[in-house]
Amino acid sequence: MSVEIWLTYVVAAIVFSFAPGSGTVNSISNGMVYGWRKSLASIVGLQLGMAVHIVLVGVGLGALVAQSAVAFSLIKWIGAAYLVWLGIQKWREHNALSLENVDKSVTAGCLFQRAVLVNLTNPKTIVFLVALFPQFINATQPQLPQLLILGITTLVIDASVMLFYVCLASRFTHYIRSATIMTRLNRIFGSMFIGCGALLALARA
User: Any stretches that span the bilayer, and where are they (predicted)?
Assistant: First the structure.
């Protein structure tokens, strides 16, 4: 994998991690309620859950490449279209964070377990990885090194972004809970998803 392709993936992974989703909501709500120190356990849990998805996606894509180059190319086109669709959905979302019925006495271990389940039970994570990974994999080169690079990069970036959200939430609770702020974030990252999907599709046209 060339440095240029890796840097392009880094940008895409940053957009993926920053975009509001279940992991983001988990990190922000934990930061607002428990503070950043206690919330570190939840960040580790999120990455463990995502790591499981990455392994599953990697195994599946590796098998697909070995069986059919045409099918792999088709997955790439579907993935680019999915990114555009996801961007449109994000643009239309209007939501705010709620802290109702939150138990402030939970342990760091409980936060870790909850975070693992958040990512493990979120089908959007694995669907997104299936859409994104093939865009940066060269089917003519060994798959394992490429998947390792993409997987480790994803985990490092996502952990960093979740830490940023936790720290931000612990300081600026009022603003992050605002429906207006969350709507603006959805529109910003929705536009980025649309742009990424369109650029990837045009690059293959």
Answer: 6-28, 40-63, 69-88, 116-137, 149-173, 185-203
